[in-house]
Amino acid sequence: MLKPLRILHLIPQISGGGAEQQLSYLASKLVQMGHQVHIAYLRNGPSTRVLPDVELHCLKARSNYDPYILWQLIRLIRQIKPDIVHTWILQMDIIGGIAAKITRTPWILREPSCQLAYNNTWKFRLREKVVGLSAAIVSNSSGGDSYWRSHYPNKRRYIIPNGLPLEMINEIIPQTSDHENMRSINKVLLYAGRLEASKNIDKLIEATHRALKLFPIKLIICGEGPIRDSLEKQVEQLGLAAVVEFAGFIDSQKLWSWMKSSDVFCSLSDYEGLPNSVIEAMACGCSLIVSDIPAHREFLNEAGALLVNPEDPEAISKAIELSLSDPNSTRKRAETAKAITQKWSISFMAEQYEKAYQQILKNRLFL
Q1: Whole-angstrom distance, CA of residue 279 vs CA of residue 281
Q2: What residues make up the domain containing 259?
Q3: Worst-scoring range by mean pLDDT, 64-68, 84-88, 157-161, 362-366?
């Protein structure tokens, strides 16, 4: 029987994106496994998660650079006395890492992406330096692990894939009333994720415009981000107002319902770690068109998806046409991809983190 642990997770906010979602899965499961879990964060949001039996600590901050954050973290760590501090996202990697070092608490960070996600700014250089103080690094992909191996080849590192709530996904009913009428007359393409340049959503819109010559298509774009205005202007200029819908941020269960009723899920990122939206679409049995990048190749090949050059609207358009014109092959690819996800349960993810925590603490005893 393993000794129950006291774990303090640090993250800027507990609503919104993929990291927040993964933390909510992990924290809840660790509590079920008998551990005491705390989360310290700076901001609530429109979709703040309900986490029963997890101790939440909302810190005060006038800005992301408020030095008072560091003082609060030091005080909180000394109060809670966690066995492990676990940081999520750059800001907390830096501030939380320094606080853990000052309090002499073992600290690990989670790497969600890969080398291409980081430019040569002072923030990322500072993070690279501070990570030298960590006890271990956990990446959700080989690309993330490779990035840190190049900086700290002798540091303890782990690769732990993201977890999926497979039972919840399986219980979701396809389709919602929002799109019943639209679905009966159109082929549905779906994108979900942050609206930023590296996602190549503009190329997807251009490819949809080209594919309209052969199929009646509806493209639904879920998510928010800095380039939404420019994407809306592109849609207007191409005369696609009736074709492209910007759905904004939607909750996971609604998204899974749309994934189960859409013809194709498209993700054309220049780089990724282990992308939540792609693996969720796989678990929902939705056919995939994804960018041909190492992150996607790590868990997908031509048997499970159509892989395309994300910078080439013509290639993307041809992939859309192939997916919609050959439903039997498309269905087989979706079934193959869905089978892959069955190993990515939340329980498996939590068990791997638990082993990592225990190994780090055991190693510390012998230092």
Answers
A1: 5
A2: 166-341
A3: 362-366
Name the DSSP class of 164: B
Cβ-proximal residues to 180 (8 Å cutoff; 6+ apart), any chain: none
The contacts of residue 140 (CB under 8 Å, 6+ apart) are 22, 110, 111, 112, 159, 160, 161, 162, 273, 274
Tally Cβ neighbours within 10 Å of residue 129: 12
Residue in 16, 193, 146 with CA at minimum distance from that of residue 88:
16
Q: Residue 67: which residues within 8 A CB-CB, separation 6 or more?
A: none
pLDDT in tens, 58-109: 999 988 889 999 999 999 999 999 999 999 999 999 999 999 999 999 999 9
Helix ranges restricted to H, the chain: 18-32, 68-80, 90-102, 122-130, 142-151, 166-171, 180-185, 201-211, 228-237, 252-261, 276-283, 294-297, 313-325, 327-341, 346-365
Among residues 313, 342, 305, 275, which one has the least CA distance to residue 114?
275
Whole-number Å distance between alpha carbons of 142 and 274:
9
- Residue 325 maps to a domain: yes
d(CA 99, CA 107): 9
Mean pLDDT, range 270-284, rounded to an integer: 96
Regarding whether 127 and 71 lie in a shared domain, the answer is yes
- Determine contact, residues 216/243, Cβ cutoff 8 Å: no
Establish if 1 belongs to a structural domain: no
Q: How far is it, in rounded angstroms, from Cα 304 to Cα 296?
A: 11
Q: Which residue is associated with the tokens 């907390």?
A: 92
Give Cα 204 distance to the centre of its chain.
Answer: 20
Chain centroid to CA 333: 22
Q: Between the CA of residue 78 and those of 83, 197, 215, what are the distances in Å?
A: 11, 42, 62
d(CA 196, CA 200): 8
Q: Which of 155, 123, 161, 115 is nearest to 137 (CA)?
A: 155
The C-alpha atoms of residue 114 and residue 149 are separated, in whole angstroms, by 11
Give residue 184's pLDDT: 54
Q: Based on the fold, state whether residues 281 and 330 are members of the same structural domain.
A: yes
